[in-house]
Predict the structure of Nitric oxide reductase subunit C.
Amino acid sequence: MIEDPRFWRSGAISASTVMIAVLVILSSDTLRTIRAGGRNVPEYTVINQRIGYAMDAAANRYRPVLGGEELLFGRRYSAQEAAKLIERGKLVIQTRACLDCHTMFGIGAYYAPDLTKSWLDPIWPSWQAMTQASSREEAMVRFLQNPDRYPIGVRIMPNLRIDRADAEALVAYLKWLSSIETNGFPARFGD
Ligand code: HEC
């Protein structure tokens, strides 16, 4: 019986079939979880809201806290506008290779700060004073357009000649990014 090739063949076929089914189920579950509007990732219109990051005692980790309206650049973005802006931000991040120096979700290069929660960095008021900006997003735009003029850390970010529209798209992307449930990464950010 054990010598029978049909026995081995049917075993291989049924095991592969089961594993393919498991892979399809896990992949579709992952896609549902990671897409904007999914379980862990807010809709792009979250950029119209206040975003925080606070200790959740029950879960014993930090979690994003979504609050009321807090407009970005004084504008309320529609779902379509927000999606377009964040798509542009993503393309700028990819074409300018920000992750050659930075990380997101801890992935990338460990030369410059992790950007996952950068929107919530308590350092922005210092940059706001330095750039004489009237808001956090304006300070971020001014910093991103002229990082070499406004250094804070030991390492200086080079001037990448980012234009105003691209800088605004980056800020929208970073604000949305900070709203993602990351299982507590980074731990105690901003404390
Ligand atoms: C050559 C390396 C390098 C590249 C490329 C780079 N950065 Fe930076 N970035 C830095 C360094 C270094 C700092 C810290 C600057 C300081 O503290 O003065 C920084 C700081 C920042 C900050 C402030 C982070 C915080 O919370 O303190 C943001 C936001 C940022 N960069 C975004 C970007 C984006 C977006 C891109 C791509 C368009 C990018 N950086 C590309 C090196 C880089």
In short: The mean pLDDT is 95. The pocket of heme C is lined by residues 92-93, 96-98, 100-102, 111-113, 115, 118, 121, 123, 151-153, 155-158, 160, 170 (CB under 6 Å). Residues 19 and 25 are 10 Å apart (CA to CA). DSSP finds five helices and four strands in the chain.
